[in-house]
Every structure is written in C-alpha cells, then in structure tokens.
C-alpha cells in the first residue's frame, strides 16, 4: 500500500491485490462496500478528481491455465495512469 495526497488535500492509496478468481465488477463492488471505491468509479461511488483521466484499475499480471499449461501475461501501468500518479 502506498498513500498519496492530491493537490487539494484528499488522500488516496495505491493498493496491490491478488485475486484467485474475480472480475473487474467484483473488485469494484467489494472495495466500494468496504468504503474504499476506486478513483473515477462513478458506478460505485469513487471520486472523479481532475488528475485522473479514467477508472484507476489495472491488471499488472494475469495467470491462467489454458489447458496446455500456465500462461502468464504481464504489463506495466499504462502511461495515462503513470502520469496521474506523478501529478500527486
């Protein structure tokens, strides 16, 4: 967990979550239910600050068994979200 403060003083946290199963909707719903909605998630009560251009949710690594063995895909944080974090 990394805690950040935006220019107007609101606090935000970057959180790494490991799921065994799940979909974007479940992540959004569960975090919102616990009082921690995603940034720019209008459906589940997240704030829409000027510094973030879109829903702040990113799958860094995806692992699945495709029948012939484990398939692993990894990707870095997209440029627009990197810029959003750097603006804090």
Taking the sheet with the most strands, its summary is: 2 strands, antiparallel
Number of strand elements: 4
The helix count comes to 2
Structural class: alpha+beta
Strands side by side in the biggest sheet: 1-2
> Which segments are poorly predicted (pLDDT under 50) over 5 or more consecutive residues?
none
Described by the principal axes of the CA atoms, the overall outline is globular
Molecular structure report:
Strand 3 and strand 4 form a beta hairpin. The mean pLDDT is 87. The chain is α+β, with helices and mostly antiparallel strands. The strands form two sheets. The protein has a two-stranded antiparallel sheet with strand order 1-2. It has two helices and four strands.
Keyword list:
88 residues, alpha+beta, two-stranded antiparallel ribbon, two-stranded antiparallel sheet, 2 helices
What's the SSE blueprint?
Blueprint (H helix, E strand, L loop, with lengths): L1 E4 L5 E4 L9 H10 L27 E5 L4 E5 L4 H8 L2
Antiparallel strand pairs: 1-2, 3-4
Summarize the structure.
The chain is α+β, with helices and mostly antiparallel strands and 88 residues long.
């Amino acid at each position: 967990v990394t805690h950040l403060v935006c220019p107007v003083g609101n606090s935000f946290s970057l959180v790494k979550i490991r799921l065994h199963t799940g979909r974007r909707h479940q992540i959004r719903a569960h975090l919102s239910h616990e009082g921690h909605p995603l940034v720019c998630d209008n459906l589940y009560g997240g704030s829409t600050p000027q510094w973030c251009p879109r829903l702040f949710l990113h799958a860094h690594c995806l692992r699945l068994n495709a029948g012939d063995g484990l398939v692993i895909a990894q990707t870095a944080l997209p440029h627009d979200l990197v810029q959003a974090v750097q603006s804090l």
